[in-house]
Amino acid sequence: MLNVEWMSIEGALVSTLTDLEFCKADCEQEQALMINVDDSDGNECIEENSPITPKWD
Question: Origin, by domain of life (predicted)?
Answer without folding.
Answer: Eukaryota
